[in-house]
Structure formats: C-alpha cells, structure tokens
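hiii so my PI (J.) wants the whole complex modelled not just the main chain, which honestly fair. so below is everything: two entries, each one labled with what it is. i double checked the lines twice but i was tired so who knows lol
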Amino acid sequence: MFVATLPPAAGTCGSRWFCRKRPLRSDSVAAGVIGSIAAFAWSRESLGSSRLARHLAPAMRTGSVLLALTLISLAFVTDPINPIGTLLMLGALTALAINDLRSRLAIHAQRLLLDDVHAELAHASRILTLGELAASIAHEVNQPLCAIAANGQACLRWFDRDVPDVAAARQSVERMIDTANRAADVVSGLNALARKSTRSPDRLEINDVLHSVLALAGSEIDAQEITLSLDLEAGPATVLAGRVELEQVILNLVMNAVQALAHIDRPRRLTIVSRTVRTDRQVIVEVRDNGPGFTASQADRLFEPFYTTKAQGLGMGLAICRSIIAGLGGRIDAHENEDGNGARLSVRLDHADTGAVI
Amino acid sequence: MIVSAPTAASGYGVEAPKSLAIVVDDDRDLREALGNLFRSVGQANLLFSSAGDFLDGTLPNVPCCMLLDIRLPGRSGFELQAHLERIGAPIPIIFMTGHGDIAMTVRAMKAGAVDFLTKPFRDQDLLDVVAEAIDRDRRRRAADEALGTVRRLYEALTPREKEVMAYVVRGLLNKQIAGEMGLQEITVKIHRGHMMRKMSVRSVADLVRIAESMRLYKIT
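here's the output for the full assembly
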C-alpha cells in the first residue's frame, strides 16, 4: 500500500520534519490534501465491492492508523494557527473515520447476507436429510394409517354381523383413536425438524441433543442391526447453539455412519462419545463407525460442497455441517479411527460456561 | 418353527382352526388391527412381531398363509422367505410394504411370493388375497398328500415290478419288455398285473400320470 510510503520520507514536509526542520506551510497543506485524497480513494475502494472490503479491512485499519499518526505529527510540527492545514487535516481524519465506518457497515451487511444464506442452506439440509430418511418416515406414517383403516374396516364388519358385536366394534374404535394419536406424535416430531430455526442460541446439554437425535435415527440403526455404544460425559456439558441446527449436524453424522455401515458384512458398530475438555473449555462429540472409512485424499475433500462418496449423494451434508459448526464458533473434523478401521467425525464447540470451573 | 399336530394352541381358541392367517409385522398397532380384522370375519390368525418370534413359535398343521412385512427388525421379510424356502416350509407369502416399488415387487414375486400388498390396503383386497393364498396352500397340501400315498405304493413294489413299470410307462409292449429283461412274456404279464394292482390303477394312462407326478420318467 502506498500508505506506507507516506511517513516520513514522502513529501517535502515529511523530509523537513525528518531533518528536524520546520515544514513549510504550503507543504503541510499539500500533506493534508494528499491525506484527504487517499482517505477518499479508500472509501471509494471499500464501496466498490463489499467482499473486497472484507478482505481489505485489516490493511485499511493499519493504513488509517498510520495516516492519522502522520497527519497528527504533521499538525504538531507545522504552524498551529494555520487554519487551512488544520481544517484539511480534520477533513482527512473525518474521511478516514467515515471510510472505516463504511467498511464496517459493508462487512456487517455481508455477514447478515451470509447468515441468511447459511440459514437457508441449513434448512435445505434438514429437508435433504428428511429425504434420506423418507423411507423410514413413510413407514412411520403409513403404518398407523394402515392400522386405522384396518380397525375401521373390522369395526364395520363387527357391526354388520348377523348379531352385531358392539363390544368388539367399540374396541376397534378405541384402537383407531390410540393409533391416530400415535400418528399425530410422529407428524409433530417431523414438523419440529422441518421448521426453520429462529437462530436464537439456547443453552443445550449436549447429551440431550444426542438423545433426541438417537430417537430420530434409532429405527434406522436397529433396522441395520448396528450395535450402538454410548460413551457420554457424566458432568455438565453445555453449549450455546440452535437446537434444531445442532441436532441437524449430529443427525447428519449419524446417518452418514449408518449408511457407511450398510456396506460391510462384519458386525456393525456405531459409537457416540461426548466429552468436555477442561483445558480448552470445549465440548467434543465424536461419531465413530467401523465402516469402510475413507482414504487420505477423500479426507481432504469430505467437507467440500458437492463432494460425495455416495452413489446417490449430493455432497452437501458435511459442507453444511461445517458451515453450521463454524457459525457456532466450533470446528468439525474427519479422522480415521485409531485402529485404522472406519471413520471418526468429531465436533468441537465452546463450553457455554467458559467462565465456570468445568 | 415347529409344526404341531392339529391340536389346541393359543391364539385361535380351543379348536384347531380350518385355516390360519399368520401376520409377521413389527408394528404392534398394525399387527393387532389385522388380527381384529381377521377375527371380525372369523378367520383364525397368529400374530408375530419378528421373523425370530415366528420361527420360535408352534404352528398347527393346517392350510395357512403368511402376511409378511418387508421391513422387519433383525431378519428381513425377504430373508425369512428364503429361510422358509430352504427348510422346505412352503407357506404362501403375501408381502406387505408401505413403499412398494417395482424393483421390490419383482424381487418378491420372483422369490415366490403369491402377492404383494401396498399399505394401506382395502380390507376386501386383503381378505381376498389371504383366502386365495390359503386355498393355494390347501391344494398344495392335498397334492403333497396324494404324492405321498403314491410314493408309499411305489416303494411297496418289488424291484422287478418297478422295472416293468418303468418300461410300461415308456410305452413298451409286453413282448419288448420281455426281450429287454430277458424274461418270458408270460412272466412279464404276471409282474405287470401285480404292479398295476399294487399301484391301484386301471389304465396305462393313469400309471403314466402317477409316474409323472413322481418324476419317474428317467428310470430305465
């Protein structure tokens, strides 16, 4: 940046000040003008592209400070009652301040926009995982429908007998009501998953989150004859996150593991671990499977959008997981299992009680 | 799976039923709803929550059919079907699925399922396919029984009579059989008379039909 060349070698007033001589009044005016033009140029630059502003922000801040220091030092060495020079310097400083404010606003707008996109993506991801769970869900909803229909039909047949069996008909209706209530529970559970998050982070016990995810994925885990082991943190492990978003991430990891295990013939194992790390004041969740795992080159790309190892995959799941976890200030990593057998996905989040002794 | 003599067993009253509808589905509500529907039309039924439960159970030796959910915890519907095939328990199977697709239907039918119901289904459709499957099982059992009788009759023949029967079935005349066996024609006639009486048939046509049911064509 040309900012760096301004002090003190640049310009005659800088040189004179450097030589312990009083700068000329005209030189100090020139310095003020140059400063203003420079600040103006930056503000134009920052308005040109908000993405650029984000990248240039650190350099701009450094530049602004340097320029301000230069001008202030010039103000000290020039004639203090020179009104034009002082005004120009004030103008330059104001321009700098405006420039800084503008770039901050641009960055903020950019971040808001990103947050919107992020929320949309997370929502889309939930829908995607719903798609992957569609077979289970169709089963879950269809079963009670079928039971209600069969009981209804049986009820009519009890009535239509030569001697109507009212007790049996009544029992059929009671069963219909019970089953309908069960179906309503399934539907309300689905609604909760499909609803957009309000983006207000809650204090969540990580083990509660794991249990609600397992309630959703449990039938799939059972259907695949997977042995599930839970190794959960006994103490408090609280994080600040949107419940639906965090459940979405964990569900995604669990479903990936379940799908990976579908392809192996040996006994299938899924291990879910939660831990607090006292030194880093962090909470870790790990999802381990003994599936085929991945190669080193795959590991590098797993979190890239549209990269997938599945025949039917879209390659969005882990990309969205990473963006959600990054949004919560955490990180997500993929490793080979210690015994070189299967995959280990870990999520690290800050402990909500960072001030507390944990 | 134990097949008991037709005596009292739980699930269908004191009397052994004439026929039995077996339901294997992990969903309790649906299982019991189907049981309720069968009871309302007086169809005896047994309900099981898994393939393992069914295989541990005891079945009366009566015509039956099985309503089998494709998605089951543990052993899947297809696996149970293949297992029954292996152990020679040809129970007619009607698959039930909540999400029937063409590939699955084809697979089930190829493996010998008699029908395929997509949930939810109309009660009359269900009762019709169940009645048809039970009827199929009844016919299969009758045919098996007839075949068993003929087998016993055939096993009671002497080696010579069996030999003569094979030639008769192939259409040889007594004189030709005598030539083939190095016997007098009169001796062949005697063997043949005994054989026809023991097999309790009157005509060569009946004998051929029986031989066909026993797949005796290849005997020389």
